[in-house]
Design goal:
Blueprint lengths: L4 E10 L10 E9 L5 E8 L3 E8 L17 E8 L5 E7 L2 E9 L6 E10 L2 E10 L4 E7 L12 E2 L5 E7 L14 E7 L5 E7 L6 E8 L5 E7 L12 E10 L5 E10 L10 E8 L2 E8 L27 E7 L5 E7 L5 E8 L5 E7 L21 E7 L5 E7 L10 E4 L9 E10 L5
Antiparallel strand pairs: 1-2, 1-28, 3-4, 4-5, 5-6, 7-8, 8-9, 9-10, 11-12, 12-13, 13-14, 15-16, 16-17, 17-18, 19-20, 20-21, 21-22, 23-24, 24-25, 25-26, 27-28
């Protein structure tokens, strides 16, 4: 069978009240969509009667399947899916490309949405936003960057004032990029709901790279910028002598740096520690829960329970990463630091606090051992490319239950989670997941 990628919508009900090692997960609905080739879903928004799902269509899928695109290059598609029975309603194609394209609802305009990713301007690939309506018409587009373009795309956010933050890694000044400290720095732009640039900011140093992984809204109207970076020399991000830093930068609403904190491994084997990074922030009454991934048992991770492993089991290969969660007080001092996963790579997607003070964690795993005991029910083997992983911990970080979602032999990772309207008022946690698949992936 030809390996293709399709995507699936899953409606999950997670019962938060019972504390057992058996995962309290019920799949209420699931449906697959796609064509003969590769279709990859990345983002979703909820409306009263339907969902809009945004993703990427490879040339091998053009002209087939649910969303009909033309051309011979990668296209971004948006599919409208009915809410009651997950039926495909209609879809549209756009010239905006991204490995992680985001769709956001414009809360200030009924039936209008932002597609945020990258496309060509200044003669290179740069940060792009398209405004569309509920009929798939493109209303306008803006693009920010320079003639050199960026290496990697970064975090994206629909802000509380109705604007957009987009980011990428740049190594050259010019155009809209005001300054580069050295190597690849993280560059962020903020535009308003009409596409007007409000501010741009470079985060970095003279190190080889500083990458923006995610951007989140803070409760005070500012922003949390979650990064993976080295740091030395001139710049506005300075970290102690640790390697593969997980760095959090707090910005004001105007894009000014208020503070930053660096966490990570001791500088013991830098050539083998390359996956540490900051992913998520949960604001708590008495501090924060920080989340990311790391691959060491030193520095801020000493005693965290990292599961030793090397990429492809190579004796001299890079260490594999665990999901890393650490709770800090209001001064950002570590209270506890714990790792979750197995001997292969495990990655964090999103964390939510539960009513009892614990947390539900969504991520992806390639492991078949350690904390990932439920991998046995889907018969993962050494060729598996990753499946979704959900687990629950108490307020002190102790694992209560865990569950894998996926099937053997194909990539079935989670890419996006939106809490449905019911979950905002229900004692249970109901969520909708977008799962991109390689080939057929029965759940």
């Amino acid at each position: 069978m030809k390996a293709t990628r399709i995507y699936t919508l899953l409606a999950l009900l997670l019962m938060a009240g019972r504390v057992t090692m058996q995962a309290q997960i019920r799949i209420d609905k699931q449906q697959c969509f796609g064509g003969y080739g590769d279709d990859i879903a990345y983002s979703i928004v909820e409306e009263e009667d339907f969902f809009l799902v945004a993703g990427l269509m490879e040339p091998s899928s053009i002209g087939t399947g649910h969303v009909q695109c033309d051309g011979n290059h990668q296209r971004t598609w948006v599919a409208k899916i009915s809410k009651d029975n997950y039926e495909f309603m209609e879809g549209w194609c756009f010239d905006i490309m991204s490995l992680f394209v985001k769709i956001f609802k414009d809360e200030n305009a009924d039936g209008e949405y932002f597609l945020v990713g990258q496309w060509d301007c200044y003669g290179a690939r740069n940060l792009t936003t398209i405004k569309i309506d509920s009929n798939g018409n493109e209303l306008w587009r803006v693009c920010f960057g320079n003639e050199y373009g960026h290496l990697y795309e970064g975090g994206r956010l629909y802000t509380s004032d109705g604007g957009i933050i987009n980011s990428g890694d740049y190594d050259m000044e010019g155009g809209d990029v005001g300054h580069i400290f050295g190597g690849y720095d993280g560059w962020l732009i903020k535009h308003d709901r009409n596409g007007n640039l409000e501010w741009e900011l470079t985060l970095g140093s003279q190190a080889l790279y500083e990458s923006v992984l995610t951007v989140q809204q803070a409760s005070d109207g500012g922003y949390y910028v979650c990064m993976q970076n080295e740091s030395y020399g001139e710049g506005n991000i300075r970290c102690p002598e640790i390697v593969s830093n997980a760095t959090l930068v707090k910005l004001s609403q105007a894009g000014e740096i208020e503070w930053h904190e660096c966490y990570g491994c001791a500088n013991t084997a830098p050539e083998r520690q390359e996956n540490s990074g900051f992913i998520d922030v949960v604001e708590l009454n008495d501090g924060y829960l920080f989340g990311g991934q790391a691959n060491c048992n030193s520095g801020d991770l000493e005693g965290s329970g990292w599961h030793y492993g090397t990429l492809h089991n190579s004796p001299n290969g890079p260490y594999t990463s665990d999901i890393w969660l650490w709770k800090v007080d209001n001064n950002r001092n570590i209270i506890w630091s714990k790792c979750y996963g197995g001997s292969d790579n495990d990655f964090l997607l999103k964390t939510f606090q539960t009513e009892d003070g614990g947390f539900i964690v969504f991520g992806n795993t390639h492991s078949r051992n350690g904390d990932v005991a439920s991998a046995s029910h889907i018969n993962l083997d050494e060729w598996n490319e990753g499946v979704g992983w959900i687990f629950r911990i108490d307020a002190n970080g102790n694992l209560l239950w865990e569950r894998c979602l996926g099937s053997a032999g194909w990539r079935c990772e989670l890419h996006e989670l939106c809490t449905t309207e019911q979950s905002r008022v229900s004692p249970s946690f109901e969520g909708l997941l977008v799962v991109p698949h390689y080939g057929y992936c029965g759940l």
